[in-house]
Structures are given as C-alpha cells and as structure tokens.
Amino acid sequence: MADENAAKELVKRLSKLGVLVAADVTPETLQGFSVEDIASRLIERKISDSSFNIVNSIDISNIIDAINLEKAPKPIEIIQKPEYRAEASEMDAHYIIDKREIEYSDGTIDGFVSHFRSRLQRLRSIVEQHRSSLSGLITNLESLNAYSSGRDIAVIGIISNKITTKNGNIMAVIEDETGEAKVMFMNGTNGQSKELFENARHLVNDEVIAVKGKISGPFVIAKELVWPDVPIQMRKKVEDDVAIAFISDVHVGSKFFMEKNFANFIKWTNGNNEDRNDMASKLKYIVIGGDVVDGIGVYPNQDRELTILDIYNQYRTFFNYVSMIPEYIHVFIIPGNHDAVQRAEPQPQLTADLVGDFKMDNVHILPNPSFLTLHGIQILAYHGTSLDSVISAIPGMSYASPDKPMTEILKRRHLSPIWGGNIIVPSRNDNMVMDKVPDILHMGHVHKNCINNYHGVDIINSGTWQSTTDYQLMQGHVPSPCLVPVYETKTNKFTNLSFLK
Fold first, then answer.
1. pTM of this prediction exceeds 0.90
2. Where does the pLDDT of residue 1 fall: very low under 50, low under 70, confident under 90, or very high at 90 and above?
3. HEC profile of 321-332
4. Cα 189–chain centre separation
C-alpha cells in the first residue's frame, strides 16, 4: 500500500510540470526509496531540459543507482605503518560459541504453558542452590493449606500478580504447577522490615522468587526474599594478553550515523590511530551487540531520518566496514530490534539474504542472545531490548544508568523477566534464562555507555555510533556515542576508548 501511494504521489508531483509517468513505472520500481529524492531529481532535469516530458522505469533505475552510489560508504584509507606490530596477529584464536537452537512457537496455549513451566523449573533449580538458607522449603504450593498458622516455611514460585494493599503493604501472588500462595510484605518500621519492603517494591510480574516466612491464615508473611541471583565470583586469571572490544547500535543507514567516527574505529583496529595503538595491537576479538543497521519501518516516519532507504544496501554498507577489520581479529555479530529478523526474542541470526555475498572466516553471525567463551572469558551478549520494560517497571531505574537495570536482570537470572514488556517467543524452552553465570554481560540498545561490576560479573553497555535522534530528544535520552569498552584479559581491566574526534 505504501509503495502504491508513493507511485501516485510521484505522478501527482510530475504532472504539475507536464511530465508524464510511463506505465512501466510500477510501485515495485519505487520500493524502498523516497519519492521526495526521486521527484526532486526529475524536477531538476525538467528545469534544465524543457523537452523532457516523460519518465520511464529506466530513468527511475538510473536515479536509484545514483542515489545508492552517493550513499555508499567512502573508502577508508588503511595505511599499514612499517613500525606497527600487531601482537594479536601472532596469537591463535581460542573461542567457543554456545549454540542453542532457536525455537519457534506453534501459537497454542500449550506453547505458553510449556514456556512458563520451563522458566519456573529452570529458575527454581537455580534458587534451590540456596537450599542451606531455605529451611522448611515446601516443594509444591498445593500442600500449603495443610500447614497450620505460625509455621515457618519457604516457598518458590513465579509472580502472577503484585498489588499494594489499602494498608500500604505489598501482596505478591506466586504460583507453581500445583497451586498459589499469597505472600505479604509488611511496611514495617525497623531496618530489616524496611529493607525487605523496599526489595518487594522491586518485584515484577513473571519473575521467579523464593520467600521465607510464617503462615498466617491465607497468607505467608514474608521474612526474607531470595532471588535466583548470581553468586559472588572471583575474576578469572588468563595468561594470554589479548583485548576484546565491545560495540553495538551502529545504525548504518540513519542520517544520524556517525560515519567518520566509526571509520576512525575501523582505522584503529588496523593500527592507524596513534592513540592507544598498544591496545589495538592486542585486539583479538570484537563483539557487536545488535542494531548494526537502522532498518526500515521500525518506527513511524523513519524514512525521513534515513540516508539509505534499501535494507539490503544498509547491510552491504555495514559489512563493507566489517571487511576492513584485519582478518586475525574475530568479530561476533548478533542482531537487535532494528535488524531485519524476527522481532520476538530469542532472535535468529541475520539471514543469508541480508548477509549477501559477504563471507569472512573471522566473522561469526550469531543469534540474540549468544554465549561466547573467548580465551576462557565467558561473555553473554544480549542486545538489551528488555531494558525498556525493566526501567519502566522497577523504581529507581533510568536510561542514564543502564548498569542498574542490568544488575536487576542478573539478580533475576533472566534476560527478559517481564512477559509482555518485551516480545518473547513462547517456545517449549525459555532460552532467556541465564543458566550459566558469565564473566561479562554485554548489552546495548539504550545508547548509553557504562561499565560496572556486580558479584564479580562485569556489566557493560557499549553505547552507540548514532548521534541524538529527534525521538531520543523527545524521550529525554542523552546518548554517549563513539565510546568503546575494551577488556584486557590478562589484567581484567576495562578501558573506554573515545572516537568522538
């Protein structure tokens, strides 16, 4: 429908100048291109050539070729300096990709039931690792009615509802496969009850928790809240001195894409930037966390903010940049919500038609999320679309500090805990559960660079290569573009490299 309207708009504009549109100009001819761009060029031709009275598909094709040529990335001049020695080129790559099969939903109720059972069972298994602190654990909620008031117990379930009562307390209803329990978090006055109540304010629907408490009639009065959480772990010792760079949200095709700055990053990977050539020399891996292109039709009127209106050309341009990265550097690419794969998560890898003719042995096209092990360092790469729902649902969260919602995600051991806040495939297995604890959790999406640590897990959000868009201004977002977190395996040290200049 949009392309038919485009064809009609072109006819309308040109008819005012006495230029006819031939019948071989179809809506498909104009697909993916701006009528304004095409019409303006035809109007210029009419002004310079008064005999030009009819436009055919060949004319349109020539204009489209010219537009694509103008929007093709400018060649990046790579100068190999004789004194530059890339230490990483002399070191073998050691990587493991934990490949999980992407499941698709059959759209039935059974699919949803299986999905939530998988979530509960897998997270309950993680919570039960805290068994030493869960004395009196009731293994199924159906049997709760058999216990008398005053009994100390522990229960595990998935939150189906949370409300604030008229007395100012918080009641959470948790369920398992057999029944439900109404858990009451009292708004007390002493330090311990205040802390417990504050934690209860952070609870969200569809997450799995354990609660220690006392039975009181139809309620369990909470004394302690236990999340699946990640255990406190020591940083790993790695003898190999290699570097890993993390980037995301490149948004090739957007008029806000910071092309020169990204080109400087590519030059840096080749040792063409005198600043931090020592770090470039050790660079062995790059992890790219999605939204590699801006996409088409992702949000209303996006075409007004695009410089490349063809999705395949956006990807060709992106992979042209990737091809300039030295072959000894391994690149791992996952998609994001702007990429042209299914929107629901887990997302499959970029398809063959998007990748096109591009093929390099050092470039790995992966699903979102993906779990990698690079020289012994375990990395969970996830684009981070669920950050939107976590930030809106949990008090104290903001786009300015994405490390806080990322910490909440680690506590829940689930990459997208709130059902409906982010689109998830209701498949047989909930593969957004974090069964393994990574050494590094890498996300993007919110365009805000940050580095932090929680329980020994390094939390990084790698920011963006897109300047502030009109939509972000409207939402009050303040991006931090062109900052690249680089991790050195031997020292366990992160450095933010700036490519703003």
1. no
2. very low
3. HHCCCCCCCEEE
4. 40
